[in-house]
Amino acid sequence: MNINAQNLDYYQLNQAIRQAEGPVVIDHCLGQRFIGTALGAGRSLTIHGVPGNAMGAYLDGGSIEVFGDVQEATGDTMNAGTIVVHGSAGDATGYSMRGGVILIEGDVGYRAGIHMKSYGSKVPVLIVGGAAGSFLGEYQAGGLILVLGLGHEDRAPYNYFCGTGMHGGKIVVRSDYIPENLPDQVVPHDLDQAGLEEIMPYLGRYCSTFGVPMERILPHRFYALTPNTASPYKRLYAMN
To answer: Alpha-carbon distance 201 to 191, whole Å?
Structure first.
């Protein structure tokens, strides 16, 4: 089903999505919020334009592909499924994400991956092809954030306060630059062979999705940011 969103507000657009059967293609999207909220398994959206805030919030197994940029809180508290963005994303991408995969071709804004968490077999993954703003992985409790830094090879591909309050999960960065002003809650270390093998499926997925040659990414230095075991933050969230 095709939906022309040009003259629809967010409520009308989302009602049309809920009532549609089969794959949905949305044209002329411009700022409508909450698109694909709680979209379940077997449902798919293709969006041309710029969706508004909280696209894919509470996503529960569905798939959303956007040909354009997205605004804030993409994938807010998503539980399962896939979001693919052929462009860049605003602040708080993957906020409280607890499952599924988000692939961003370009950059993300502030607080990407904030409060990401994992439980059992649910391990959320946020892949950023470009760079991230400040507070990347703030209070991260689980999951994987992968930042490739494509087009930003002259610096660390994130800004200030990366991993502030981090007490679980992992941030993996492709870069030759490790900033000296990382917060005390984060420990940087070079990615070993086992760590590289762990992320290879995600690198392959990024390359195949966006048509990026693997040779552009490998060989290159990768390092991981993991929680400092001496950090006091974990005690605020876990009873152990």
So the answer is: 15
